[in-house]
Automatic annotation (TrEMBL):
<dbReference type="InterPro" id="IPR002711">
    <property type="entry name" value="HNH"/>
</dbReference>
<protein>
    <submittedName>
        <fullName>HNH endonuclease</fullName>
    </submittedName>
</protein>
<keyword id="KW-0255">Endonuclease</keyword>
<feature type="domain" description="HNH nuclease">
    <location>
        <begin position="230"/>
        <end position="282"/>
    </location>
</feature>
<dbReference type="GO" id="GO:0004519">
    <property type="term" value="F:endonuclease activity"/>
</dbReference>
<keyword id="KW-0378">Hydrolase</keyword>
<dbReference type="Pfam" id="PF01844">
    <property type="entry name" value="HNH"/>
</dbReference>
<keyword id="KW-0540">Nuclease</keyword>
<dbReference type="InterPro" id="IPR003615">
    <property type="entry name" value="HNH_nuc"/>
</dbReference>
Length: 359
């Protein structure tokens, strides 16, 4: 048995080899891998060679979160995510959306969980079981079943595995030594590649989409600016109508900026949101902000953020943002350039890092 690839580059090559071989019949593998990478970033082990246990239900939650926006109608219809007649994961997520009254609307998954805890729990179970029956044990194999597991032990999984078997294995998959660290380090490279493959798959599964139609990528992975509108007005009231980065007074319809870029980790919690002017938002785009800026965002008065959160029924997700930021910065090579303002970049230097960045 392979005891893990300590070299992230070799790990990345093996993942790409699996993804490039054979046509996918569903986007589940891409979703599972994305969820796994994000989990590793947010649970980066202090020791690079450490193994990691990943709860399957935690992965299932991330997968639900990914499909949550994707199952909304696009040009009047739901996009197919599978070439099979029944697509269990999108169906389960759609059921939850309907139960929460989120059809077509910008309601967040967090709010749906509060509104319909039982339906959410059932959805999570359904998705967790689907994950161990299908994509998890196919993720590290070539079509036809060849290949040696290089991410985790999947010997107990098969297409009809029961919930009892899942629970008998602690409800977790155990990543081999070094895999969690390797995946976290590869996040910045793999995630954009996964999104490109995903858009290609969805186009292939939805032949009615014209080659020059609309923004499929935006529908699948973009962020609705309108969905963030409630956060904008509430943040203005709490912190004033100035750009978080350059402090210019803001126009009425200014952007709400994800401090940790949405494309790196899609965290919508208030702890990751600031008000920005168009110039800063456009200049920052997908760049990682400097540690100093991240620190300033995390140093905002927690009580004020909590008040805002309560007023608009929006999660703060402070701990999640801290964990994600720690994983992202620690996974970056030392000396990487980070965004420090329009036209300004600084080299990443963790030697004088703030407390939250230490392990
Ligand atoms: Zn600005």
């Amino acid at each position: 048995m392979n005891e893990g690839a300590e070299d992230p580059l070799a790990l990345g090559q093996r993942i790409v080899a699996v993804l490039e071989t054979g046509a996918r019949t569903a986007t589940y593998k891409l979703a599972t891998l994305t969820a796994l990478i994000d989990h590793c970033v947010e649970h980066l082990p202090a020791d690079p060679s450490a193994p990691l246990e990943v709860p399957v239900r935690a992965l299932a939650h991330r997968v639900v979160e990914i499909y949550w926006r994707q199952v909304r109608p696009f040009e009047g219809q739901q996009l197919r995510q599978s070439s099979q007649p029944v697509a269990r994961i999108p169906r389960a997520v759609t059921t939850l959306r309907e139960a929460a009254g989120a059809q077509g609307a910008g309601l967040s998954l967090d709010l749906a969980m509060i509104r319909c805890p039982e339906v959410y729990a059932a959805t999570l179970e359904d998705v967790a079981l689907t994950l161990v029956r299908q994509p998890i044990h196919r993720l590290q194999k070539l079509p036809g079943g060849g290949g040696v597991p290089f991410l985790y032990d999947d010997s107990w999984m098969h297409d009809q595995v029961s919930r009892r078997t899942l629970d008998a294995h602690g409800g977790v998959i155990r990543l081999f030594h070094g895999v969690a660290y390797g995946l976290a380090r590869l996040s910045g490279l793999l995630k954009p590649a996964l999104e490109i493959l995903w858009v290609e798959d969805v186009r292939r599964m939805n032949r009615h989409l014209d080659a020059n139609v609309p923004d499929v990528a935006g529908h699948l992975f973009g962020r609705d600016r309108t969905a963030l509108a409630p956060a904008r007005s509430a943040l203005k009231e709490a912190f004033g109508a100035r750009c978080f980065y350059c402090e210019v007074p803001l126009a009425a319809n200014n952007p709400v900026d994800h401090v940790l870029p949405w494309s790196r980790l899609g965290i919508d919690g208030l702890a990751n949101l600031v008000l920005a002017c168009g110039r800063c938002n456009g200049s920052k785009l997908h760049a990682l902000p400097s540690v100093e800026l991240m620190d300033r965002a995390l140093s905002r008065e927690p009580a004020v953020l909590e008040q805002v959160a309560e007023a608009i029924a929006w999660p703060t997700q402070y701990d999640r943002v801290v964990a994600a930021a720690r994983g992202v910065y620690r996974g970056e090579p030392a000396g990487s350039l980070t965004w420090a303002g329009p036209g300004r970049a600084v080299h990443l230097d963790l030697s004088s890092a703030p407390d939250w960045l230490r392990v």
